[in-house]
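Whiteboard transcription, Tuesday session. T.W. wrote the structure tokens on the left side:
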């Protein structure tokens, strides 16, 4: 990545043509360039330089909900901003948090402090920025209920501060980010203090562990559920009805635990995963006349 070679410093490190397999939760075989960034100023520098050379980029957090190509043409930007964890040890009205923080840390704080609303993050294998971008959620709620402010650097390297509310989000998505926007900080609120929240979260995590293949190499939910007039058509339920649990193709299999999770069993690739998704999606349409959109980014 010659365009960025002169930018390397204490806040910017560049690793070229390396294996990216371990940078995604599905562990698909992949190779490319990753740029690790430790400050807002460094992020602005990198984006402005990439914009100057008209180079597209991807932002990677925990690497869930993301499929990396065999040879990834775009550099991956990975934020590693410093963070003082002590702020999560006391109750505050709101918390300013780096986008790269893992949701598991926030769930621990929710259990310790009883931060109502944060239980919606339990069990989601994502970073905060990625969770906001896709309005991540579970049976316990969605993150849009607790997001107050989002700070971004846009594709021109300009800083933007967005005050947001639930109306600025949609099912597994948002209405405020543009192509190339990078979330670097998020302000979360809570909905009060609930003493029994720890028990609620632990119960949900036990249920999730029993029902989902959390110990396997997956990208999380593959397809979005269809929601219409208050009725939810769960993709996993329909795949299960077709008897496809355990179905395998080119090292990618439909989980026998939850049919909307596909597992990478034998060093699968992006092409293998996309082929499996297209096949299952086609079968869903043939059997039920329903088009389930991908939840995972490809």
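and on the right, the sequence the group agreed on:
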């Amino acid at each position: 990545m010659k365009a960025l070679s002169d930018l390397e410093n204490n806040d910017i490190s560049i690793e070229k043509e390396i294996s990216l397999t371990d940078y995604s939760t599905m562990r698909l075989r992949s190779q490319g360039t990753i740029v690790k960034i430790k400050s807002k100023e460094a992020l602005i520098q990198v984006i402005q330089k990439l914009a100057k050379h008209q180079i597209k980029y991807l932002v990677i957090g925990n690497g869930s909900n993301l499929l990396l190509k065999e040879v990834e043409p775009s550099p991956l930007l990975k934020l590693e901003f410093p963070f003082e964890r002590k702020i999560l040890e006391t109750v505050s009205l709101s918390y300013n948090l780096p986008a790269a923080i893992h949701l598991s840390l926030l769930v621990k704080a929710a259990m310790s402090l009883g931060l109502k609303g944060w239980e919606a993050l339990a069990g989601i294998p994502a970073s905060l920025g990625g969770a906001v971008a896709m309005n991540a959620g579970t049976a316990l709620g969605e993150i849009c209920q607790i997001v107050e402010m989002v700070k971004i650097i846009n594709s021109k390297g300009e800083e933007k501060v967005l005050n947001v509310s639930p109306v600025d989000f949609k099912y597994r998505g948002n209405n405020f980010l543009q192509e190339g926007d990078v979330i670097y900080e998020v302000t979360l609120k809570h909905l009060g203090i609930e003493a029994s929240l720890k028990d609620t979260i632990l119960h949900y995590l036990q249920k999730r562990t029993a029902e989902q293949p959390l110990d396997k190499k997956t990208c999380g939910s593959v397809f979005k559920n269809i929601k219409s007039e208050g009725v939810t058509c769960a993709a996993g339920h329909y795949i299960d009805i077709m008897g496809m649990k355990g179905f395998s193709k080119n090292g990618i299999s439909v989980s026998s635990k939850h049919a909307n999770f596909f597992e990478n069993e034998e060093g699968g690739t992006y092409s293998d995963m996309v082929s499996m998704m297209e096949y299952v999606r086609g079968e869903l349409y043939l059997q039920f006349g329903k088009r389930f959109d991908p939840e995972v980014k490809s």
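Someone added at the bottom: Residues 248 and 254 are 6 Å apart (CA to CA).
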